[in-house]
Amino acid sequence: MLGAFANAFRTPDLRRKLLFVLLIITIFRFGSQVPAPGVHVSNVRSCLNQLDDGGIYGMINLFSGGALLQLTIFALGIMPYITASIILQLLVVVIPRLEALKKEGQAGQAKITQYTRYLTLGLAVLQGTGIVALARSGALLQGCELPLLHSDSTATFLMIVMTMTAGTAVIMWLGELITDRGVGNGMSLLIFAQVVATFPSSLWGVKKANGDGNWVPFGLVILIGLAIMAGVIFIEQAQRRIPVQYARRMVGRKMFGGSSTYIPLKVNQSGIIPVIFASSLLYLPMMAVGFGDQSGPVADFVQKHFQTGADPLYMAVFFLLILFFTYFYVSITFNPEEVADNMKKYGGFIPGIRAGKPTQDYLSYVLSRITFPGALYLGLIALIPLVAISAVGADQNFPFGGTSILIMVGVALDTVKQIESQLQQRNYEGFLS
Questions:
Q1: 389: left (phi over 0), alpha (psi -120 to 50) or beta
Q2: Rg of the Cα trace of the chain?
Q3: pLDDT attached to residue 309
């Protein structure tokens, strides 16, 4: 692997791409540390020292690399773009016009990408308004009575919201620059950079929770984390390959077909989307209580069971939501009927299965069987940091589990594969050989 890295940097065009990606990530991380105008930096830092990271905005703060609670110009991070992308993926299935655009190829996909950008800016305005409103009222960093803004005026409020929205637009631009001129998917690499940025502090939080002189629990966490990472890599690479045979057919004077291929069905077909859906949905009760009356039986129940994530009821609901959203997302992203029709249209068939409706039923059967272990895998991985809260005293950004480990491993594998493919084009030894 080190030799492959050396070969990559020996290749001039690939070296330029890798250095360009590093430059963009450096700019991105620098913007994540620059406070927005009007923010009282010293008070924010004082409040952060008293804050437990497992708050209601832990997921968004994870995707912003800790920039959210610091109220920087990149405070919203990549979260508005992720939300907009998920919404557009769902709307493509529901709205016929968007479905038609998806089938138009590159031109239609460019139009959908443009819609995603507009929706991202709209969501950035909404999220920025909510976050700045919470900061102005003192509810963003609960338990801290220091003012987070220099002024409560409407002008300061609007200036910070506009700055955060502009920061989101810049993040989109940086991600597209990486995709066009660098290596890998730009947005995925920016998410990876933000998650990795919180990794050292999360590890240090585990160490501090067990005392300065006690290194045994810390070493045990590292060993367990490496084992979890190996398991995640194994599952992320696992797939069920359904063989497909194409019959020979004569078109004019040329013979086409007669080839064999396969349909790869991944065990984790839905990625990290179900975890994001479930986490976001479980934040809604605490958010509603934060904006409404914090007294009463409903508010007491929500604060008791849904505040920290360590409650057994929270874990059970979280696990069940992940199972549901896994099946839901797979059902809208993989259409067995469409795949079966395309195979029949181009003369393809699964050996031993008749074309048409029998092929559709077979694909649906295999997909439902393989989605179940994938859903269990996502649920168990997502519960690891919640269990770690009470086991080793870690926070909800515990590094070896949940969304963070899925993002780090998934993006790293995809990027390594893309670099490997470029190396193989130049007859170099790849990363995974």
A1: alpha
A2: 24
A3: 65
Instruction: Please check whether residue 402 is in contact with residue 384, taking contact to mean a CB–CB distance below 8 angstroms.
Output: yes
Q: The domain spanning residue 273 has which CATH number?
A: 1.10.3370.10
Q: Are 23 and 60 in contact (CB under 8 A)?
A: no
Backbone angles phi, psi at 260, to 5 degrees: -120, 140
Strand partners, 241: 264
| Integer Cα distance of 200 and 203 in angstroms | 5
Please tell me the predicted confidence (pLDDT) of residue 271. Answer: 81
- Domain containing 193 equals 1-197
**Which residues of the chain are modeled with pLDDT < 50?**
54-56, 396-397, 429
204 and 178 share one domain: no
CA dihedral sign of residues 385, 140, 168, 80: positive
Q: What is the pTM of this model?
A: 0.78
Angle, helices 12-31/2-10, rounded to nearest 10 degrees: 100
Secondary structure letter of residue 351 according to DSSP: T
Q: Which residues does residue 264 pair with via DSSP β-bridges, in sequence order?
A: 241
Do 182 and 214 fall within a single domain? no
State the pLDDT at residue 171.
Answer: 92
Residue 204 sits in the same domain as residue 173: no
CA distances, 183 to each of 81, 188, 396, 412, 429 (Å)? 20, 11, 31, 12, 18
Tell me how many domains the chain contains: 2
**Per-residue pLDDT tens digits for 111-146:** 888 999 999 999 999 888 988 888 888 777 766 778
Q: Which of 82, 77, 67, 74 is nearest to 272 (CA)?
A: 82
Q: What is the pLDDT of residue 23?
A: 93
Specify whether 352 is located in the same domain as 298: yes
Nearest Cα residue to 384 out of 206, 216, 253: 206
CB-side exposure of 216: number of CA atoms within 13 Å? 1
Which letter does DSSP use for residue 151 in this model? Answer: -
Task: Flag whether 409 is in a domain.
Answer: no
Residue 106 lies in a domain: yes
Closest CA to 81 of 131, 122, 142, 129: 122
Q: Are 150 and 35 in contact (CB under 8 A)?
A: no
| 263 inside domain | yes
Q: What is the pLDDT of residues 260-289, one digit of tens each?
A: 888 888 888 888 888 878 877 777 776 666
Strand partners, 243: 262
Amino acid at 81: Y
Rounded (5°) CA angle 341-260-340? 10
pLDDT of residue 168: 92
